[in-house]
Amino acid sequence: MDYSKSGNPKGPKNAPRHTEHNSKGSSKNPFGQKETKAELLARMKAAAAERQKN
Fold it and tell me: Which parts of 1-54 fold into alpha helices (H)?
């Protein structure tokens, strides 16, 4: 008997089970675009100010 053919079929190898919310190539993290340090600092300061306000 060929035991390799028994059971359920195996799924695809090396496939992620889900997609990340900030994965490369998504709308939130597009390919080829990197924010400058000034933009990063402005975003971080705005987030810190929002936390201070709440």
Answer: 37-53
